[in-house]
Amino acid sequence: MFSLPAISTWPALRWPWFLIAAIALVLESIALYFQYGMGLEPCIMCIYQRVAVFGIALSALPALVNPHNLIVRLISISGLLVSCIWGLLIALEHVAMQNPDNFMLALSCDIYPNFPEWLQLHTLIPSLFEARGTCGDIDWSLFGFSMPQIMVFIFSCFAVCLTSVLAIRLFNKKTF
Predict the structure, then answer these.
(1) SS3 label, residue 34
(2) Region of 172 on the Ramachandran plot (φ > 0 left; ψ -120 to 50 alpha; else beta)
């Protein structure tokens, strides 16, 4: 019978990092299905959240390659935390934009993303990062929750799981 290793050992194993990257890539695939399969155009905030999910996937890669190296794990963990928290903040702002009581916030949606000059993703890969939608529109919902509300849940789950595993490892092993 298969049994999972103790949660405190997970950061030093390869499969949790693979799982994180796989979940992020599945989320990206779902976003592309919504965009190209269902015709739901992403807005600027959607694009920023998409970048945060790519950040989660890319952050998992160093530790996936070498999970036994502490420095490599810390790089992955740092990238994951930054991506999760940034994605959560963007998703919360997006939810606020969709709130009809915040009419002025709905007007603050940019036309072009604010990517750094050296990484203009919307011109390099427009099929993934070009925004064509409006931030205030709610074109799709699941059980009464809009996409940004679902992304708040997803980013929160990533952040809670990551911090929980790290806290357990820290308290059990006294090291990351």
Answers:
(1) helix
(2) alpha
The helix (run of H) or strand (run of E) holding residue 142 is strand 141-142
Tens of pLDDT, residue by residue over 71-88, are 999 999 999 999 999 999
- Cite the active site residues: 43, 46, 50, 109, 135
Spatial CB neighbours of 110, under 8 Å, sequence gap ≥ 6:
44
Pairwise CA distance, residues 89 & 83, whole Å: 10
The stretch 128-156 carries a mean pLDDT of 89
Which residue, 59, 63, 52, 61, is CA-closest to 79?
59
Residues 128-147 have a mean pLDDT of 85
Largest CA distance in the chain: 57
